[in-house]
Each structure stands twice: as C-alpha cells, then as structure tokens.
Amino acid sequence: MFYKVIILSAPSGAGKTTLAKHLLDSDLELEFSVSACSRGMRPGEIHGKDYYFLSPDEFRARIANGDFIEWEEVYQDHYYGTLKSEIERIHGNGHFVLFDVDVKGGISLKRIFGDQALSVFIMPPSFESLRDRLVSRATDTPEKINLRLAKAEKEIEDAPKFDFTIVNDDLNTSKSEVYEIVRQFLNE
Question: Looking at residue 39, which CATH number applies to its domain?
C-alpha cells in the first residue's frame, strides 16, 4: 500500500537540499527518506542518518531479497536505492515521506508511486547562476564542476517529467512556493 510521498529533484547546486530542509522544518509532518548506498562513508557521515551504508555484497543480497522500492548501480559496485523498510518506518511514525534525490531517481520514484507522489523539479535561474553556486561552494575541482554542469544540462531536459517546476531565483519565494505546492497536495 502506497502513501503520499514528496519527491524533490534538481541538478547539483540548484538549491534542492535547502528547500528540503525548509519543508522538514515546517508543519507538514514530513520525514526525510534515508537512502542506502554501497560507497564508503565520508568523514562526518552517520550510518542511518546520511545513508544506510552497505557493502556491495550486502546491497546485492538486499536486491535479491526484494528489499528495495528502487535501486540503481551508478558506477560498478556503487549502488544507491530506497529500502521498503525506510518508507514503512516513516509511515509508522505517522509522517509523509520526503525524497531528496537526483533527477533520475525522482523520475523512477514518480513512476513507482504514481498519483500518490508529488514530484517537484528545482530549476536554477540560469546556467551561469548554477556555475556560480557550484564555484562558491568551494567543494569541487574545476573539472568536477564541469562534469556537474554537463550532467545538469541533461537533467534540465527532464524537468517536464515532473509535476511542478520551481525556478529557484529568490530563495524566500522558492520556499513559499514549494511549501504551498506540498501543503495543497497533502491536503487533497
């Protein structure tokens, strides 16, 4: 049985995580869906909070058991996915699920949940502003930024596959827009 879920997707640097945090801090009774992955844990990350960290063998065993709603092998032996138990845990808490996922994952989750899902694409105001945001983060090399921008070009083409698109030009306006869209969907 599916319950209403919220899917936020965007190219890297468009502001998706900032808007997700805004929704989580609101009165909408949303809870973040923690994904599973088979990559190594980065400094400061916490198992069960940032990701459920599994070895590639553990991940494949969970796939074989049918434990995932969706999953993908992004690179060889680097899997990412959504555990069915995570959705059940959130609904058991009496909350709605909030997915903060990449564009491909957002499209996949919308296909799985159908009308029970609200999918929102966060669009950068321009390609130049996206580049500026990625550079100002100071977390990536110029080569990595160029890879992210190339990927963003392809991801932006998928925006029409989402229920709504919010152009994140002014953060306060975007926060109001995403809150109102989600509030209306949850109250239908």
Answer: 3.30.63.10
